[in-house]
Amino acid sequence: MKIQELEANYIINTYNRKPGQNLLLVKGEGARVWDDGGRCYLDLVSGLAVNILGHCHPAVVAAVKEQVSRLIHASNLYYTEPQALLARTLVEHSPGDQVFFCNSGAEANEAAFKLARKYRPGRYKIITAQRSFHGRTLAAITATGQPKYQQGLEPLVPGFSYAEFNNLDSFRRLVDEETAAILIEPVQGEGGVYVAEEAFLKGLRRLCDDEGILLIYDEVQCGMGRTGRLWAFENWGVPPDLLTVAKGLGGGLPIGALLAKREVAAAFHPGDHASTFGGNPVVCRAALAVMDTLLAEGFLEEVRRKGELWLGCLKRLQESYPGLVQEVRGLGLMNGLELTRPLASEIQQRCQGRGLLINAIGEKVLRFLPPLVISAEELQEAFAILEQVIAGLEEAAGGENS
Ligand SMILES: Cc1ncc(COP(=O)(O)O)c(C=O)c1O
């Protein structure tokens, strides 16, 4: 049986993959992947912000190989070296003092919700942003400010409410004496790539301090160097009390982490939370290799430079094709292009046909999440394909209109 048939028979259809539309990928190297027909694609999806060092980065491969032959898994009943070393590295480079390890972004957020509730008994409410995305577990999807993902799952987890992103008053209005935390993505990803404003973040920080509320940043997508700083919030210098991280941290292996101030972390006692695979030695070794690479001299500076180059390319598209490109948004190598018409999937497919992978979110937004190691030449190559596709669509629309 072909892989596509196996999938249709044996995998629950949550991703809606379709033969002919969705590729069968077999190999990756750097910013490129290959399908089963041997065709090569420039990958600006990066496993949805996971492959920040590209595919099969040598440092990650070496770390995994070495650890896999030594100790693959041990229960959290025992100490293991990679977990302790990774926790130290994360703490040394973040506002957190202690770490809880898990396996995904949703789990990192779950840990944050539980810790926030434990920290201030009696306070259980969490305010999040409209258009946000925080994961698919029941609490994380309740935190997600997009009703379309919540339909049919009711009753949702009590205590979540939604304010308007970049509107401080909207958050302030929802605060009461039962509010435990405010949770936002400093750059909203899945909701359409919206960047927080400095005054908004500073206002949230002040609001939280004044009201004794925890400020939580979900940097599952925008963290790990994506915006050109290790953490997105560094762009504005407004730190959180709790920080959730996942996706890129494991270099392609599953990991999530909650970073917390010591005083807050102390609200968790032995037995309050746990994860069988959390802090797995192989995954933590991979993450250490990722952190080392990201923190190497000049790496993040390069990301900022390439981010400006890519944003410049997108802005040129907007200038050249105002009839199709409505807005360009983003920070570093996390960018979105909003279209005037619902052509996002069509553009995604046409780009794929020309050897470029990009991601359509909703009907009108294209999201670009290239690996941070992509070269300037590869970005130019991607731009040339995208421009050809957009020019082709504009020409066709012009033809229809004339
Ligand atoms: C900001 C953000 N938080 C949480 C998640 C959930 O992460 P995971 O799919 O690893 O549970 C995502 C996934 O896209 C995300 O973008």
Give a structural overview.
The chain has two domains: 3-56 and 298-401, Alpha-Beta Complex (Aspartate Aminotransferase, domain 1), CATH 3.90.1150.10; 58-295, Aspartate Aminotransferase, domain 2 (3-Layer(aba) Sandwich). The N and C termini lie far apart (49 Å). It has 13 helices and 17 strands. The protein has a seven-stranded mixed sheet with strand order 4-12-11-10-7-5-6, with helices on both faces. The protein has helices spanning 3-10, 46-49, 58-68, 81-92, 105-119, 138-143, 168-174, 198-211, 262-265, 281-295, 299-320, 344-353, 376-401; strands at 25-29, 32-35, 40-43, 98-102, 125-129, 160-163, 179-184, 187-188, 194-195, 214-218, 242-245, 256-260, 325-331, 334-339, 356-357, 359-361, 365-368. The chain is globular. The protein is an alpha/beta fold. Residues 48, 104-106, 109, 133-135, 185, 189-190, 218, 220-221, 246 line the site of pyridoxal-5'-phosphate. Pyridoxal-5'-phosphate binds at residues 48, 104-106, 109, 133-135, 185, 189-190, 218, 220-221, 246.
